Amino acid sequence: MTQLAAERRDTVTDRRAPRRRIPLTALVGAILLGIVVVVALVSFIYLPYPPQQIGGGRLTGPSAAHWLGTDALGRDLASQLMVGARIALAAGAGATLIGAVLGVILGLVAAFTQRWIDDGLAAILDILIAFPSLLLAMLVVAARGATLTSAIIALGLAMTAVVARLTRIYTKRILSSQYVTAARTSGTGVFGIIGRHVLPNLWPTLAVILALQFGLAVLAEASLSYLGLGAPPPNASWGSLLRDAQATVYTAPVGAIAPGVALVILVLGTNLVADGLRELFDPTRRQR
Q1: Residue 180: how many CB atoms within 10 A of its CB?
Q2: How many CA atoms lie within 13 A of 244 on its CB side?
Q3: How many folded domains does the chain comprise?
Q4: Residue 3 maps to a domain
Q5: What is the DSSP track for 115-163?
Q6: Contact 261, 77 (CB under 8 A)
């Protein structure tokens, strides 16, 4: 009996679906992204110096007292870089959240409404996508004032069109499937179809797109801060650190290299996570 039970357990185990292995790109991206997240969290508890404290000497090199040296005003670069990690993550997460919520709602409305409303929304989304997102963000920031909140709202609105268009396309594809037709025939309402069929099939694609949009939002916020339209002083955004270090890039290169490397790590990490999610959710890529 014991041997027979063991054979049955082995048979059941063999019939189980194979587990999905997490792609290597997703692991590497998660590690890079986790480094920035840890630095941002640590900055709430510990900073080597107050970010705006002046008195460490102008343009000093890395030392035991100042790990990355100081800038042209004598401020500690390591402390400013750690604070900049908070701003980068807040901008990316806030803009992605706004773009995801508004984009999914608009995409679902366009997919479920009458044809003339759908065509009108599709035309508006195409115009917004054709409009440069950074220029749109600059217009919003210029109208509301140069603050971190304005930058997040502007980037979120610029991201909305991309998410809405993709949501509309994939939702229409899902609505044309046979199981959705059967659900409608059985009397399932609109919200039931969205909750049971549309969103469960939509979220894997949206997860990949939103991961990519997160990296683009981080770069856009750095660009706005570089132009003076991002988080105002005394906030130490990575873009503003690059702008301040531009004049002294030859005499004190660490001031420009450090925020540039931080941006590369964060954006590369999010792109690798997005590529790993695409490989995880796409069966054809997993087979290859």
Answers
A1: 18
A2: 25
A3: 1
A4: no
A5: HHHHHHHHHHHHHHHHS-HHHHHHHHHHHH-S-HHHHHHHHHHHHHHHH
A6: no
Token pair in block for residue 97: 């959240």
- In angstroms, the CA 60 to CA 66 distance is 8
Residue of 214 and 119 predicted with greater confidence: 214
User: Do residues 234 and 51 touch, judged by C-beta distance below 8 A?
Assistant: yes
Report the chain's mean pLDDT, rounded to a whole number: 81
Mark out the alpha helices in the chain (DSSP H runs).
2-15, 24-45, 77-112, 115-130, 133-144, 148-175, 178-185, 190-193, 199-226, 238-245, 254-281, 283-287
Residue for token digits 């001031």? Answer: 255
CA Rg, the chain, in Å? 24
pLDDT band, very low/low/confident/very high, at 71 (cuts 50, 70, 90): confident
Which residues make beta-bridge pairs with 70?
Answer: 76
Most confident stretch, 35-44, 65-74, 128-137? 35-44
220 is a domain residue: yes
Q: What is the 8-class DSSP label of residue 46? A: -
CATH, residue 250: 1.10.3720.10
Confidence of residue 20 (pLDDT cuts 50, 70, 90): low
Does this model's pTM top 0.85? My answer is no
The answer to whether residue 64 sits within a structural domain is no
**Average pLDDT of span 97-113:** 89
> Residues with Cβ < 8 Å from 63, sequence gap 6 or more?
69
Q: Is the peptide bond before 200 cis (omega within 30 degrees of 0)?
A: no
- Does 15 map to a domain? no
